[in-house]
Amino acid sequence: QKDIKQFTFDHSYWSHDGFKTGASGLLVPDGNNSAYVSQQHVFDDLGRGLLENAFKGYSCSLFAYGQTGSGKSYSMIGYGPNRGIVPIICEELFNKIDNNRDFDKKFQVTLSMMEIYNEQIRDLLTRDKLLQMNLQIRQSPVHGFYVQGLTQIPVGSYVEIEQRMKQGTARRTVAATNMNETSSRAHTLITLTFDQFLGTEETKLSRKRSIINLVDLAGSERADSTGATGDRLKEGAKINRSLSALGNVISALAENKKIVPYRDSVLTKLLQNALGGNSKTVMIAAISPADINYDETLSTLRYADRAKQIKNTVLINEDPMESLIRELKAENERLKKSLSSIELPSSVVVENLTPTEIEKLKDSMRREMMEQMEINLTEMEAQNQAKFEEKLRQARQEITQQTIPITKQLGDSRVAVKSKPYLSNLNEDPQLSGVIVHVLFHKQTGIGREPPNETQSNQKSAKIYWIQMKGLCMVDEHALLIRHGKTGAEVELRALPNAIRMTKVNGVPVKNSVTLQHKDRILFGSHQLYVFCNPLSKEYADELKSGKEPEVIDWEFAQRELAQAIGFEQFGNKPKQKEEAILQQQLLELLPLINEVNAIAEELNKQRKFEVILLPPTAQAFKYGELKRTKVMIRMKCTNTGHMWLWDRGKFMTRRFLMQDMYQKYLNKQLEDYSQECDPFWEPLEDLFIGIAPAFLRALAYRLDVNEELKIMDFIGDELGTVNVKLIPCSSSALPSNNTTSGNTDVAFVEDPRELIGKPFNFKIMLSSPNLYDSEQNKCKFTVYYRVFKESELTKVKMEPNELHTRSYSIDQVTLEHLDYFHTEFICFMIYCSQYEKDAKKHHDAYSSGSLFPRRYSHLSVEELNDISKLKTELTILQRGLDLFIEKDKQLDQLYKAWANKSLSADNFKLILEDIHKLVNRKVPTINLSATSKKTAVLPIHEDEERKRK
């Protein structure tokens, strides 16, 4: 609230809550006061105007930007009956075409669908697997940047578009699953080329063309917001270079720069027209309402704010047919002449080129010219309505015959699905879940990465029909699914010998075989996750009879189950607090990624193992008043030497993307030798964070010394060693102010800490070198980090064995915050020890993946130390009181002796009363002995009025 950021946009929508589900599954506002905005509402505001402009002949673009999980795909594509803008635009486009009453107007619509992943283009509408990958971008003086060989399919209805988009999504899912890719890293571009032919042959035909780009951009997570700024490979592993380039283009256009870096990425080349050319463009900025996503939300809003400043000059794309065809023919004639006597442009310096290099350049120019001629011929054919109708007929015929081998779309397999057991895929992207369906038609179905043949006979001469599943931890012959009984209702899953530990049912590894139950979750390898559905089972029949909504089995459900199976018992319960929910969400995201990189490391023989480590708030040296959260860290361990590294989430995510890319090159047989500096699995040795030593500050509130041999504890509460710490109140010159003899016990001591308010306060910190129980580790050099109160930077102390660190800390004026800090907090000394290249000894390895979640006693260890510190402080204060009582007794005895022989006059009586009054009024410190209770404070800073009165 102190730093409010304001942004102004054309529309602002809320879809996080405030809705109810109608009978058809459609989400609608829950009452008149609901802020929820439906998908249809968004289309009416954004999509309808875009569609009207397309009919006028303007090119239009719509793209969604935002972090993963913020709702981009929901707004663009939608889920189930809650369709997004893209399908509604496509349906409304053909509705308007069907309602046309101008018989002199003809329409043509062609569809293309592609995915950009890691700067590579994948055609999602071609059946040819070789043509799907690595398409090239070319540039034409007429058409600008285009994708060479991209499939353009004529469509004649919304149903045809829907079928083609389902096919594209299925291919995208198969590729992402088999190639171990992350869907949130990919951009999906759907392009509709919408042509309107006006007039007749007699009145001279003209054509209006609108290119409608519908773009679902990749997730916009910023690595620096998650802590990856210090990674040496960050610049080479930008999670999505296309988005960085897109941001640079938008900034350049917003600032009216002369040079706009369109050429920096595949995405910006293809969107050049949409961003700064002849196009009416709408951007949807999807943001999360969660405070944990504040940085990403602010970044998204700034991104969209810059985009809003761009002003495009748009023109209606209308050309006379006669002149258009004439220009295309003329260009082809010119290209033919150029092909016969090709010469390099004058701008090319040939002096330093070999004849072979010159010939290569000429060959490249020839290919580009021939490609351009082919494009021009296609363009001329497109103007011929009869040829378009023929292509449309062929496309319709193809889609009725076309099936994706082995893998069938759910929509195309409904009849079989009703009567046969089947596997349905689960994906972290809800759009890609349920897209792949493997129907178990046969008695025996095999699963494998590289099965021998489509069918194979086993020893009993029964045929095995193989389904190919690629990906990490898949073996050539992975598992068998065997149907038993007359109806085949009972299905057995049998893990084959080499895949026993890599086949799991409901999170548990299959030792040999298991009988599958309806809605069991099956994990093949590390990434192939499916739900088993059995329409022949009693459970399925009971589910139908009950009439209740069936239990939803999604990616998150399966991941929670897998997490529980490896020791995360907390995933079986609903989180009670917001912090627990955030932590569980982070772990659900990371655990499958940890399994993935472990599998990649094993396959590439990298001798690395990754595990999740949770740092509780007590181990993080937070600033006073800062929000304290458990931090998720990833530990990388060398299985050969025992060396260990701790990475934050941001650094791990950056490295994981590089590991994925390395694995892709390995699969494509393109993996070259990596230098250490470029290898994402390599890291120079660094100091290892081994544990913490908390020094409690309560005694300082009474100006008492803290002189402790602190326990050093690891992340799960086990004791590793000790470290001596002294905290000594001192004067401004850093000389201890309680450097007194035993006969002067109350010097600098305060009975009520509130006496310190408004006064300066200084104390000295004295720290000895840690002493570990492991004799080998005790020889290492140590580095200690700690923070006092609200210091912005951690103090770093490098320590040799037996070295002493001394430092003073000054407070100009003590406030209630300082007293509360002394009273409730501690200085967290974080202990690191050095690692050496030759060091192959056994490292401390108490925290394994079986104890990833902070155990209860890890928190209790710090609390117990806090209680001990309280008791020590109380004991010191009581000892001070006892010393004062003894001193008073001595002084009373001296007073008795001094007045014993004096006369009892009125004057003497007054004098002796004054001496007794002074002696009695010397305060003796008192404390509440129940102060060790967690609910009772030793220091009565927040006393109520009644207690004050008493």
From TrEMBL:
Domain of life: Eukaryota
SUPFAM superfamilies in UniProt: P-loop containing nucleoside triphosphate hydrolases, SMAD/FHA domain
Binding-site list for ATP: G66, Q67, T68, G69, S70, G71, K72, S73
Descriptive protein name: Kinesin-like protein
GO molecular function, one term: microtubule motor activity
Gene Ontology terms describing biological process: microtubule-based movement
Keywords on record: ATP-binding, Coiled coil, Motor protein, Nucleotide-binding
Family annotation (InterPro entries): Kinesin-like_KIF1-typ (IPR022140), Kinesin_motor_dom (IPR001752), Kinesin_motor_dom_sf (IPR036961), P-loop_NTPase (IPR027417), SMAD_FHA_dom_sf (IPR008984)
Pfam assignment, any one: KIF1B
Span of domain Kinesin motor: 1-310
Origin species: Schistosoma japonicum
Membership in a protein family: Belongs to the TRAFAC class myosin-kinesin ATPase superfamily. Kinesin family.
Annotated SMART domains: KISc
